[in-house]
Amino acid sequence: MKIHPFVVAPNLPARLQPLREMAMNLWYSWSWDAKRLFIRMDSDLWDACSHNPIRMLGRIPQERLEEFARDESFVASVERTYEQFRAALGRPGWFERAHPDRKGDTIAYFSAEFGLDVALPIYSGGLGVLSGDHLKTASDLGLPLAGVGLLYSRGYGRQYLNADGWQQEEYPENDWYTSPVTLERDAQGKPREITVGLAGSDVRVRIWRVDVGRVPLYLLDTNIDGNPPEHRGITAQLYGGDRENRLKQEIILGVGGVRALRALGIRPSVYHINEGHSALLVLERIRGLVTEEKLSFEEAREAVWASNVFTTHTPVPAGNERFDPGLVWRYLAPLAGGLRVAPEALMELGRAAGTNGDGPFCMTTLSLRLSAHCNGVSELHGRVSRGLWSGLWPGVPEDEVPIGHVTNGVHVSSWVSHDLEGLFHTYIGPRYQDEPWSAPAWSRVDHIPDGELWRTHESRRERLVFYARRKLRAQLLRHGAAPSEVARADETLDARALTIGFARRFATYKRAVLLFNDPDRLAKIVSDPHRPVQFIFAGKSHPQDQPGKEFIKAIYHWSRDPRFRSHLVFLEDHDMELGRYMVQGVDVWLNTPRRPHEASGTSGMKAAMNGALHMSVLDGWWAEAYAPGVGWAIGGGETYADEGYQDFVESRAIYDLLEQEIVPLYYTRDKLELPRGWIGRMKASVKALAPRFSSHRMVMDYAERRYVAGMKARSALEKDGWKGAREVAAWRAKVRSAWSSVRVLTIESQADGELKVGREFQVRANVELGPLRPDDVAVEIASGPLDTEGRLQDAVSSRMSPESQEGGVHRFTAMVPCRASGRHGFAVRVLPSHPALVHPYDEGLIAWA
User: Fold this and answer.
1) Which of 67, 63, 73, 57 is nearest to 17 (CA)?
2) What single-letter DSSP state applies at residue 174?
């Protein structure tokens, strides 16, 4: 039987046509005015359609649509909101004002998941939501950015618990024809497709587009008639299938993503690899330059390296994708011919140093080797990453390993409640939205009257409690609970009690069960009749993470313990809707990772912007954000070899904070029943954290410190038919072949005896360069304090100047200042140097005296 498909769209009256245009753009997801239009049409249907406006418009009866078209008040609201929408898409952005010389440049942002809205379920957790916030912010700032990802027909899976609390997953099919997704078509109106080779067979890949404000997101889909079943299922589930399917997904994302942009006529200047899932784009980029521009592999590598940005998101080994080398070679072999490189050299790009040619192929390693601009996602994570990956740059001091940091942030308009936004508009003004990185704007939080702020916060907590009860009732009905137990759901939680939230991915290092180390002590805390405390938990475990599922089961069982039944709930199926209710409604946000395994964490930022106070281990973003008066630190950043002992110490610290500080502060009220001390901390927290941890500050950091540098490097290398790339590749080949002859022969110093602070002394180094010239290298002196083992600490490097040459020996000199008293030292080194290099650190190319 042959089925002839066709698509039916909502038949909107002319006066309501702007609704469809707004519904097809994810701008509605961070505009309360736009959302309110759809809620006003039918709030129950809005919820039933999972806040998907396209699906909702298609289900409203035609006669009802005609009624809305005759409602002058509603039409006026549509027209007013549509004007806001067009203005948001048309006004010049920050990037255009800050970098008018970069017109024509485009940034390609690759990620395996994008959490934009609950209506587009192609995300699993923090990485996806961060990617979504990045795109929304790029739209606000006017960055010329295009996102690239995969369109998962069954997403990450919906979570539900069985009667024993064990996580189960279900994978409902997503209907993209009733979603804010558009199929890209060619000039003849046919769906636009590309082809990607997988182990000898070609896979057809279809391209879809999601409009995120003025930023396009292109999503790739293999679920196409004509593809065999094993290929149609490649993009079925986010992080789904076996290792082979995961590799196929990453080939489609990386290789297919570059080809999709090329097919759409988009030629990015800079590529941002957001975590290693899309790492293989580097090889497709090189292949394109080799085949189209007739560059050699090394010449193409220079151009790709200089314009690649890579963000690593985890120090946890399981988070860094590694594949069996045989499996990788089976799928990458077809690329090797187009790259014009030896097969083993291609494989070595993804192998860690010292694996002797037989180690696994690591996507993080590949990304680090072929990206000049690399960063972690918090200050601490950058430091941890430099230690974790220092083996890729042998001889380079750990603190100089070329991995920096850009601390994550969150999109204010997507996460701050509309109730609180109303207060912000009244007392701060629109600047908090237009320039959320502005500390002076946020300082006006102090102008909000305490009573207004507290009443607004209390209303959000009440909504969270009612929402939690509704979800809990639905969970119990699904479990087949007794009617009396279902009825008790309406008595669970207290809308006035101190409410603490914990919602995140249930990886074991996040230690969701740490709170229950001493259940008897915890029971006393929560059950105080005059000062009750309650906890709301939510979060999914990866379907294959059995220990994570055990943690969920344990918390579910604690929630059924008579001591905690009224004070503790676990809510199923954590998604962006549940996340919003929680970060907007809790009083305290709890975070308990095992330091230093939390790369950043963004849920606490969202809660803080809504006035919640953060309580966390000093890990991720909180290690740089914490200050007395804006929240609480669990411990002092210590780590212990005995993990059980660390759990004991930090669980006690949580109980101490609750008993001695948090609970008393919350329940100390004045004559007006206002907790003045607590409100003061709320204001201090918003004022200090909102500007520092907004995604606008984050994306501006990327633009200023990564994207523009990549654009300039690309322009220089591309000029005159890639003359710059050819020259740099030839220079680097010369340096590599000659480096074995580079050495520091002798050092002459005036640093004898005791020196005085404020003085300086001269150092001369005699260096042999072989066939290299002085301008091929940088001779540097690194100086600083010494630790007890004689190692340089916080060294400052400065370049030595060429002074003379005798035969093959070059003399360099520098003055070293004595800045502070104590035991100090210096060391001399030689590095490659070329004006076109983004940084001088190359594998093995460093010579120390």
Assistant:
1) 57
2) P
pLDDT for 735 equals: 96
* Continuous H helices in 627-693: 643-657, 663-667, 676-689
| Residue range 351-360: mean pLDDT, rounded | 77
Whether 300 contacts 726, CB under 8 Å: no
Tokens of 243: 């290792």
Same domain, 391 and 444: no
What element of type H or E holds 712?
helix 708-738
Q: Are strands 404-405 and 824-832 parallel, antiparallel or unpaired?
A: unpaired
Q: Can you give the three-state secondary structure of 548-604, one letter per residue?
A: HHHHHHHHHHHHHCCCCCCCEEEECCCCHHHHHHHHHHCCEEEECCCCCCCCCCCHH
Instruction: State the greatest distance between any 2 C-alpha atoms of the chain, in Å, as a whole number.
Output: 95
User: Is residue 353 scored above 80 in pLDDT?
Assistant: no
CA 840, 844, 845, 848 dihedral sign is: positive
Helix residue ranges, H only, 8-71: 17-23, 32-41, 43-48, 53-59, 62-70
Tell me, yes or no, whether 749 lies in a domain. yes
pLDDT at 159: 94
The distance in angstroms from the start CA to the end CA of the chain is 78
Q: What CATH number is attached to the domain comprising 814?
A: 2.60.40
Residue whose pair of structure tokens reads 């003399």 in the numeric block: 811
| Radius of gyration of the chain measured on its C-alpha atoms | 29
Q: How far apart are CA 227 and CA 236, in angstroms?
A: 13
State the CB neighbour count (10 A cutoff) for residue 42.
Answer: 16
pLDDT of 1 above 90: no
Residue 451 in contact with residue 672, Cβ under 8 Å? Answer: yes
CB-based burial of residue 272 (10 Å sphere; 0-12 exposed, 13-18 middle, 19+ buried)? Answer: buried
Across the range 170-195, mean pLDDT stands at 95
Mark whether 148 and 27 lie in a shared domain. no
Do 71 and 100 have their domain in common?
A: no
pLDDT at 460 over 90: yes
pLDDT of residue 825 exceeding 80, the answer is yes
- Examine the domain organization and report whether 131 and 248 are in the same domain: yes
Peptide bond between residue 325 and the one before it cis (omega within 30 degrees of 0): no
Q: How many CB atoms lie within 10 A of CB 233?
A: 18
The structural domain count of the chain equals 4
Regarding whether 373 and 268 lie in a shared domain, the answer is: yes
Q: Residue 237 sits in which domain range?
A: 94-159+181-405
| Of 179-188, 309-318, 342-351, highest mean pLDDT | 179-188
For the beta carbon of residue 149, count every other beta carbon within 10 angstroms.
29
Strand order in the sheet with 760-768: 743-749, 760-768, 809-817, 801-806
Burial state string for 403-427 with b = 16 or more CB within 10 A and e = fewer than 16:
bbbbbbbbbbbbbbbebbbebbeeb
Does the pLDDT value for residue 151 go beyond 80?
yes
The DSSP element (H or E) to which 207 belongs, if any, is: strand 201-212
CB 219 within 8 A of CB 210: yes
Looking at every residue in the chain, the average pLDDT score rounds to: 94
How far apart, in whole angstroms, are the C-alpha atoms of residue 525 and residue 659? Answer: 7
Q: With 0-12 CB in 10 A as exposed, 13-18 as middle and 19+ as buried, what is 454?
A: buried
DSSP state letter for 612? P
Write out pLDDT tens, residues 87-124. Answer: 999 999 999 999 999 999 999 999 999 999 999 999 99
Q: How far is CA 166 from the centre of its chain?
A: 29
**Half-sphere exposure of residue 324: CA atoms within 13 angstroms, side-chain side:** 8
Same domain assignment for residues 532 and 546: yes
Which of 405, 422, 453 is the last residue before a domain boundary? 405
Per-residue pLDDT at 4:
66
pLDDT at residue 750, as a whole number: 81
| Angstrom distance (rounded) from CA 709 to CA 290 | 23
β-strand partners of 163: none
Cβ-based neighbour number of residue 806 at 10 Å: 8
Closest CA to 696 of 436, 487, 404, 354: 436
pLDDT at 473 > cutoff 80: yes
Q: What is the pLDDT of residues 626-659, one digit of tens each?
A: 999 999 999 999 999 999 999 999 999 999 999 9
